[in-house]
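Hi there. Long-time user, first ticket. I'm pasting a complex I've been working with (about 810 residues overall). I'd like to know whether the download I got is complete or cut off, because the file seemed smaller than I expected. Thanks.
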Amino acid sequence: MKSLECKILKITDEQYPAHLRNIPNAPQRLYYIGDLSIIQKPLYAIVGTRRASPYGRWAAYEIGKRIAQCGISIVSGMAEGIDTCGHRACLDSGTPTVAVLGTGIDVIFPKSNTNLYYEIAENGLILSEYEPGVSGHAYNFPERNRIVSGLSKAVIVVEGAYKSGSMITAKLALEQGRDVFAVPGNINQPNSTGTNSLIYDGAGAITDLNELLPQLGIIGNQLTISLANCSKSELEILRIIKEAPGITVEELAVAIYEDIPTVLRLVNTLELRGLLKSEGAKYFY
Amino acid sequence: MYARVLTASLIGLAGEKTWVEVDLEQGLPAFNVVGLVNQSIKESRDRIKSAIANCGFDFPLIRITANLTPANRKKDGSHYDLPIALALLIAQDAAETGEYDDAFTDGSIACFGELSLDGKVNKVDGALSMLIELKNSGVSAVIIPKGNLSEAMLVKGMMLYPVETLTEVLEFAARLKNIASVEADGNTNEYHENSFPDFADIKGQEFAKRAAEVAAAGMHGMLMVGPPGVGKSMIGKRIPGIMPALSFQERLDVTQIYSVAGLISEKNPLLCDRPFRAPHHTISAAALIGGGGNPKPGEISLAHNGVLFLDEFPEFSTHTIDMLRQPLEDGFVSITRVNGKVEYPSRFMLVVAMNPCRCGYYGDSIKPCSCTESDRQKYLGRISGPLLDRIDINICMERIVYKELVEDYDFGNEKTNKKPRVIDSRALRKGVEAAFAMQEARYKGEPINYNSQLTPQLIKKYCALDEESRALMETAFTKWNLSARQYHRILKVARTIADIDQSEQIKSDHILEALSYRMPEKYFK
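Hi, the file is complete. Here it is re-exported in full:
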C-alpha cells in the first residue's frame, strides 16, 4: 500500500467549512486525507444500519446514485452496510465522496473496507477528529456522527433500529438544524422501526425515487429513463414491480399470467436495459 | 496331490479370472496361503479348517500350500474360502467313492463364496462384477452362494448353481449328487414408475422447479440459496425423479458399483431408479470420494448416473469439497492406495443447497437477519471458488406467502381461458427427456454426453450464436462484468434450454433465460 499524506485542519483555518463551525461542540481540529474543496458546500449524508437488508442496500445505492449523478457528494461513516453502499454509489457515479471515521485517520475499520478506504483517499476526502492510531471505541462512533450531519445539508436515514447510531445522527442533525429524510420500511422489521418512527415524527419520507431530487431540493440533470421500445408486457412488469418492489419471479408470473421462462426473459431484458434491478430472487424498480 | 479350481478376484469394479491351486505334501502340518493375499484371506484358513471338519471330512494333517494366481496381484475379500476348500478336498480325495468332474479342474465351472464355521456358504460382495468378468472370459457355469442368486440373474446366459453348504459342492464335484441349475435370464424386472416424490408437492417455487428442469436436462450442477424451510431439500430430493429412466446397461453399471460396495438388496438386486445420495456434512473425504486400504466406492460413485445432493453446503469441510473437482470434471475417480490403483465411475449431477448467511434469514421478508456483513462474507467465503465455477445453475429462493401455499398454485386465467399449467414431475421429465435425446444425437462422435461437459472448443462448435443473441451476450457481458468462465456457463445453459425447446439453434430467448441462472460474481467474495 502506498503511503498517504495526512494533514490537519484547525477550526480557525479559512478552509474550515462555516456550516461545520456553527454546530454545537464543533471539532477543534480534524485530520484529513484528500481534497478539502469537496466539503466547502453542504453535502448529503446517507446513514443507516451496518446489518443492512438487500432492500436497504438497494435503496442506499439508488438514492446515492441519483444524488451523485448530479455531481453532489455523499458523506457517510464508512461503516459496513448502508454507509458502504452510499459511498460506493457515489464513487461508481464518478463523484468524490466524504468519509468521517470514528477511528484514527490511519486505522481502517472495518477491515473489509480497505479497498474503499484507498479509493476514497484517492478520489474524495477522509476525515477524523481522533489522533492517528486511535482504534475504534464504541463511544467514538456516535460522537463522529455529529460531524457527518454537520457537513450536510440533509441526512437520509435508510435503515436503522429504534435505538441505533443512525437515530443518534438524525437527532444531532435536527439539533443542528439540518433536514432529515427517512426511507420507510416494513413494520415487522426491527431495522425499519427507527426510520418509520422518524417519519411518524415528521421527517421527510422518501416514497418515490423519481421525486427524490426535487424533494431534496436538487435541481438539475435528472436521470431520464427511456420507456420507449418497451413491449406491452414489459411495461406491465415495470408497473407491477413499481407497485410492489421486492417481488419475486413466481409472483410476477401469477400477476401477468405467464409461465416462468417468459417472465425470466422479460425481467432480464429489462434489467439489461437498466430499467430494473435484481437482488437475490427479488426485483426492484 | 494337487488340484486347482477357477474363481475370480475383484480390483475396484473390475473382476479378474483367478485360479486357486492347492498342493498337499508330506511334512509338518501347516496351511499356507500365498499369492499376495491380505489379512481377510489369511483368516480364511481357520474358517476352512472348521468348515471342513464340521462337514464331516478330515482336515489333512500335512503340509498344505494354497496359491492364488496370477500371484502378483494383491487380493482381498472372503470369497476365496469356497474355492480354496473345494480344491483342498479334491486334492486329498475327500469324497472317496466319487469320481471328480474334470469341469472343475479345467476351468469350465468356476466358484466363489464365503464359508462359515459350520460349512454353510455365505453371500459375498461384488458377485456381479466377478460374474461379468467370468462370462467375458468364456466361463459358462458358476457355483455361487444362494444369497447372491438374485443379483447373479442379471448376467444373462450364465448357468448358475446356487449352493448352501460345502458338502453340496463337494458331492456335486464328485458326481454324487446334482445341484439344480438356474439359467440367468438377464432382466429380473421391467422398469416401473420411479419411486421419487413428485414436484407437484412443492407449491409456489416455480422458478426453482424450472431451474431444476434445466439443470437435470443438461446434467448441470445446481446451487440453491435460500432461508430455511423454502423447499431446497424438497427440490433436491425430486430431481432424480425427472431424469429419464436408466437404460439396462446404465442400470447394470450402477448395480455393479452397489454390488462392490455391498449395498445390493436381495429382494431387488437391479437398481432401477437413478441413485440419489445425500451424505451428511460431517462426511470424511474417504467416504465421499472412495477409499480404504482396498478402496471401496465413495458417495460420488454411488451417485453415478444420478444425483449427489449436499445440503448445508458451507458446513462441509473445504478440504473434502475441493476433492470433488477432479471427479466432476472427468466423470471418474482414480484412487491410489498401497494395494494398487482403482478407478470408479462418478458421472453424477451435483446439487447443493445453502442458507444465505449463518442465521439463515438474510433478505427474508419476515424474519430479521442477525448477521453482520462480515459474518455473512465469512460464511459465504467458506465455499471453494473453483467448485462454484463448476456449477452452472445458481438460484436464490424466497419464502413463499401463505396464500400461495394453501391455494392451488397455477397459471390459469379465466379472462383469456388459459388452462392452468400444473407443473409436476411428469411434465418436467418430458422436457428433460427431449433434451437428453437432442444431446445424445448431437454428441455421438464426441467424448462427452451432456451440455454441462462442453469444453470451450466444443462450445465454439455447438453453441454458435446468431446476430441478435451475440449482441445480447455483449450487452450482458459489459453490463454485469461477466468473466470468461461465466460467459461459457451461460452459453452451456442456453444450449440446454434450446434443447428442451427442441431447437438446434440457440436463440436470444434462450440466452435471456439462461442469464437468470448466473450468480452475481460479487455474491461470493
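A couple of notes from our side: DSSP finds 22 helices and 19 strands in chain B. The radius of gyration of chain B is 28 Å.
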